[in-house]
Amino acid sequence: MDKLDPNRQTVWVGERSIAYDYLVVATVAELALDAVPGLGLSRGYTQSVCNLHHTLIAQEAWHQFLKQPGSLVVGAVPGASCFVPAYEFALLADYHLRKWDSAIASPLPL
């Protein structure tokens, strides 16, 4: 998108104009996990849920974490990672850990 005119509900891509009723502008994070020492999967000590490949690797790490849970830090690095998946993961992890903790504290009768 090269230009946006919300009054005329039109966007331009190059010379082409496109009229719209609703416009959603979705930004994309460019992963730069090597920008911060210690960050990243291959040379770091962190997990990522910013793309499918990373999420599948993080899933295995999550299962390992559940075997011996401890402190969990969830964050995102400006300019190096994406924020939305980090928030989503933090909320889901909190939900599942609370549910899991409740099940352990008062297990269901057999």
Structure report:
The chain is of the alpha+beta class and 110 residues long. The chain has two domains: 1-30, no CATH class; 35-105, no CATH class. Helices cover 35% and strands 10% of the residues. The protein is built from two helices and three strands. It has helices at residues 52-67, 83-105, and strands at residues 3-5, 10-13, 16-19. Strands 1-2-3 form a three-stranded antiparallel beta sheet, with no helix packed on it. A hairpin with a 4-residue loop joins strand 1 (3-5) and strand 2. The N and C termini lie far apart (59 Å). The model has no long low-confidence stretch (mean pLDDT 83).
Please summarize what this structure is.
The protein is 35% helix and 10% strand.
List the helices and strands and how they pair.
Elements: E1 3-5, E2 10-13, E3 16-19, H1 52-67, H2 83-105
